[in-house]
Amino acid sequence: MVKVVLKEVSKYFGKVRAVDNLNLEIKDGEFVALLGPSGCGKTTTLLMIAGIYKPTKGRIYFDNEDITDLPPKDRNIGMVFQSYALYPHMTVYNNIAFPLKLKKTPKHVIHEKVVKVARLLRIDNLLDRKPSQLSGGQQQRVALARALVKEPDVLLLDEPLSNLDAKLRIYMRAELKRLQKELKVTTIYVTHDQVEAMSMADRIAVMNQGKLQQYAEPNILYDKPANIFVAGFIGNPPMNFIEGSIMEVNGEYYFDSGVFKLKIHRSLGEMISSKTEEAILGFRPEHIKLVTTKAPNAIKGIVYVVEPLGRDMVVNIKVNDTIIKALASPEIQLTPGQQIYIILDERKIHFFNKSTGEAIV
Amino acid sequence: MRITRAVMKKIIPWLFLTPVIIFIILSWVAPVALTLYLGFTDLSIKNFLAFIRDFFTPEVHITLENFEKIFFGGDPYLPEVLKITIIYVVSVLAINAFYSLILSISIAYFLKHDYLSLFLRVSWLLPRITPGVIYALMWNWFIDPRYGMLNTLLSLAGIPKEMLPQSWLLDKPYSQILMIMVNGYIGASFGMIVYTAAIKSIPPDLINAALVDGANEFQVARHIIIPLLKWPIFFVVAWQTLSLLASYEQILLIWGAGGGGGYAGIARAAGVMVWALYSYSKAFSEYQYGYASAISVVLVVVGIALILIYFKLFGFSRLMAPSKVEV
Fold first, then answer.
1. Which pLDDT tens digit goes with each residue over A188-216?
2. Can you say whether the dihedral through the CA atoms of B253, B257, B259, B265 is positive or negative?
3. Considering only CB atoms, which chain A residues are within 8 Å of B224?
């Protein structure tokens, strides 16, 4: 088990900056997710940690050892690929045994270890099959077994769940998390699925266009997103954003979107206006209260579409030309076209600098 | 009578295929049948004129003599031809199927520089796109003991003069080595095209997975790339065996000139008389058409037997399928 440190790591492919000046520290035994949309550089980062790619700039350390120039075979890493990358010409047993055979482990030790890890992942009845005879879920377990059998210092997972069906994915999520806590292996998990990252990781590194956006615990990402990208990426349905400006009238501060004016607390208003005039208001669908009668400091809108989800429902509300999504309990009877009022909880709203996208509050 | 759609649907493919089928019958089936027939005759220069005037002339006799000669030691030179043919097919096949595999892996996998890899691949294709006669002529110049580059290069490489042949064309075993080099250099490009395409189509994840699992580059080649090339290797081996059995053009072009052996030239003296060339020389320099045909028939039978064995071993449908990497 090691601590992984990335220091000012960059990777360029020609003119494309796949990863740009990334600093990251993953603690010993920690489960970290690299989260971001496709093409954000998360897989490139993983392959640099694995040693498949060499960073254009920067260094990578395992504990205090600089491993930047070490080939993959000398890094003692286990990796699960999105495609699983099982060797099609080998049986499940030989797939799992392959890393040990390369280490010239004695045969009986190989056998013991393969059987042990196969039992752990409940694939011990599949050992003489070929990968083509396995289901997606089974292949995924074999890939995981192959990564774990060599008792790696670092476990790298590249979207391991994305090829599974929805039900199995949710099951494997918990399974992987349990396994990681049990083995206490430092784990780096690449995903574009924020739910996976939120539910499994100790910390999440959100990336976009090769740059690290924020690196924090899941609840901090959710409660205190560092910028508008993180705010919009974390949470489902995503955060609502409304552009506007801060104005002061007789010592009272308002957020003016042009359509509505929202009164905000004096200290909040002063803080925002000290930094920028143009701001973006952000609030999560789950932090909206909907009322049917007029209320003070409420935003008036019209019900546009209602999407029932069973446990709750997503209400799309049209405020002038903007659609605002709100989560509401399904007990409220709403019909499209109906007038409705949105009440925001001032403690749970966010303001972003319009020009930089940085969070102000 | 109205032709229904269903009938048309059955006829149309055959209609389109007809020209090709006629071509195959004329250029392949008919010669095989004719060769088979001639193999059982005593056709030679003596009754040849009568034969071309009248196919059924009584001067040409049906006989088993040719095959008796082949199988019961009637031709003392045949065992030598057989030996040379086996050396030729096996060695050139080794170059075409296995040496080209090593080359392909080096060029398409070990060599990470794309442009250099492309340049090397193209340069290996040069002999194949060079016209055969020019290719043979260039070899003739290259091996010339006095003016050619080969001996000069070899002595530069430190090989003592006594070990270099007086004549690459005539001194055995140098002539046989030359025969193998000339044909191997052309043939290797075929395997290379098939192999490099197959190597490039191996998913990079598989190779990355092996690297992460602890393999070095050679172990990746040995444990991942070569096993995945199983079908391309089978295909190249089968294809090259058959084409080598029947091939003699380069040998004829290089050894065919002069030497008093007629069309086969000095091939016999040089020890490069392969089976197909022997048949050719029997027919066109000694005018023993019947015997030459019988020799060819043996070659056709061996070829068909090998095809059947390969089909049995590798599976007909898999062999006929486009070159693939099993993933």
1. 999 999 999 999 999 999 999 999 999 99
2. positive
3. 87
